[in-house]
């Protein structure tokens, strides 16, 4: 199957951190329809407003070949569908493919013979050709490889990172057959300046994506365990890491909370599939357990510090600085900071949250006491939970009462400012 560039119309399903930059990039070369079920999101984007702050207003308003829609029937003119919906886990940490299946059904109802469907969502190996292709065929009545074509190109977006962006990260591409893989590879090469990597199969590409974030999860878990160990030995773990990092092959990760939609989720997809096949991963599972328990460990450290300083947690005024799952971005997905807040409130502390990257509207459903202007000299304890750049230059001790405590979870602040750091 061959197509001229003028014949290609791309529909991007899901306009979040992954889909929106993709839609804007492809609109420089092709007609693009951006679809999202959130009507408010679609209106905002049409007006040049991106609440994720990943795409500028200028880029949105100047993308003349891109239009945003919230109704599925407005996608009918597309012949290439790129699905970028979330793939979360449920309360039991089992993969939840509900959004992916729903998107597949939407596309399946619109597909025509000759169309191509590309998935970017992170899944376990076999899901794209098994679950997704089956949904597409069942709804459309079309046969894979004969009537429609399937590809997989896992997203590698790093929210809040202005350097490692869509175009500057090598793009992995795979297809259900070699002809489709080559054709989709050429499509992505138009927007990826860093180049593409053609994986030998979709299952290999799915597995590669899953282990990228699993590797990070394991490395952070190692640092978290070191933090616990060295705290008992009265050794500063960050000083240990800095010293070890003088060796060329040391991997300089740091301890902390592991949230977000990727690192804290993707390992469960691998664990699920592996257990389904009869192998029960030990290292990956242990790393997940360590990182899942990190917020409880942080609270334990804080309570012990307060007791040492003869500060009672009941009715204590506490300010938590930073709520997003990582620094310098407004992404609240799976943030573990909220667990610290909830645990402190169980002890009847009076906790306030301050984060310049989010608004009161963003946290409306989270049952938090959110403040946009912390008051100097008000708090018994300040916890710097997220290392936003705004926090690095202004000494947060000014928010403390005399004798108040400053706890730095990520080692952002100078030693002389803080009472303790993780």
UniProtKB/TrEMBL annotation:
Domain spans labelled UDP-glucose/GDP-mannose dehydrogenase C-terminal: 319-415
Oxidoreductase among keywords: yes
InterPro entries given in the database record: 6-PGluconate_DH-like_C_sf, NAD(P)-bd_dom_sf, UDP-Glc/GDP-Man, UDP-Glc/GDP-Man_DH_C, UDP-Glc/GDP-Man_DH_C_sf, UDP-Glc/GDP-Man_DH_dimer, UDP-Glc/GDP-Man_DH_N, UDP_ManNAc/GlcNAc_DH
A Pfam family that the UniProt record links to this protein: UDPG_MGDP_dh
Keywords: NAD, Oxidoreductase
PANTHER family linked to this entry: UDP-N-ACETYL-D-MANNOSAMINE DEHYDROGENASE
Protein family according to the UniProt entry: Belongs to the UDP-glucose/GDP-mannose dehydrogenase family.
Name of the protein in question: Nucleotide sugar dehydrogenase
Organism: Marinicella sediminis
């Amino acid at each position: 199957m061959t197509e001229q560039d003028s014949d290609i119309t791309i529909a991007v399903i899901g306009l979040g951190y992954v889909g929106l930059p993709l839609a804007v990039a492809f609109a420089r070369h092709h007609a693009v329809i951006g679809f999202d079920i959130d009507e408010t999101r679609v209106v905002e984007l049409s007006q040049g407003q991106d609440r994720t702050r990943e795409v500028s207003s200028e880029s949105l308003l100047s993308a003349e070949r891109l239009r945003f829609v919230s109704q599925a029937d407005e996608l009918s003119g597309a012949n290439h569908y790129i699905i970028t919906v979330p793939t979360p886990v449920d309360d039991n940490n089992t993969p939840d493919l509900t959004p992916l299946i729903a998107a597949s059904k939407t596309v399946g109802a619109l597909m025509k013979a000759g169309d191509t469907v590309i998935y970017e969502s992170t899944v376990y190996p076999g899901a794209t050709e098994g679950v997704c292709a089956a949904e597409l065929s069942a709804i459309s009545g079309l046969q894979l490889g004969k009537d429609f074509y399937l590809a997989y190109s896992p997203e590698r977006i790093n929210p809040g990172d202005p350097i490692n962006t869509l175009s500057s990260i090598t793009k992995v591409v795979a297809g259900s057959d070699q002809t489709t893989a080559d054709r989709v590879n050429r499509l992505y090469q138009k927007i990826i300046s860093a180049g593409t990597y053609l994986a030998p199969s979709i299952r290999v590409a799915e597995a590669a994506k899953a282990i990228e974030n699993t590797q990070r999860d394991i490395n952070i878990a190692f640092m978290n365990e070191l933090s616990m160990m060295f705290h008992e030995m009265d050794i500063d773990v960050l000083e240990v890491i800095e010293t070890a990092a003088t060796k060329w092959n040391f991997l300089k990760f740091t301890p902390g909370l592991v949230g977000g939609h990727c690192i804290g989720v993707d390992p469960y997809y691998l664990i699920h599939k592996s257990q389904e096949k009869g192998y029960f991963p030990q290292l990956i599972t242990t790393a997940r357990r360590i990182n899942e328990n990190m917020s409880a460990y942080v609270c334990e450290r804080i309570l012990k510090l307060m007791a040492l300083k003869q500060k009672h947690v009941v009715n204590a005024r506490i300010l938590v600085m930073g709520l997003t799952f990582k620094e310098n971005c407004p992404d609240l997905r799976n943030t573990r900071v909220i667990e610290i807040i909830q645990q402190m409130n169980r002890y009847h502390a009076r906790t306030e949250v301050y984060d310049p990257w989010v608004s009161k509207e963003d946290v409306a459903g989270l049952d938090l006491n959110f403040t946009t202007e912390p008051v100097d000299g008000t708090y018994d304890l300040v916890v710097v939970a997220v290392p936003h750049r705004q926090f690095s230059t202004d000494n947060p001790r000014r928010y403390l009462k005399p004798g108040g405590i400053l706890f730095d979870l990520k080692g952002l602040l100078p030693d002389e400012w803080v009472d303790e750091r993780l």
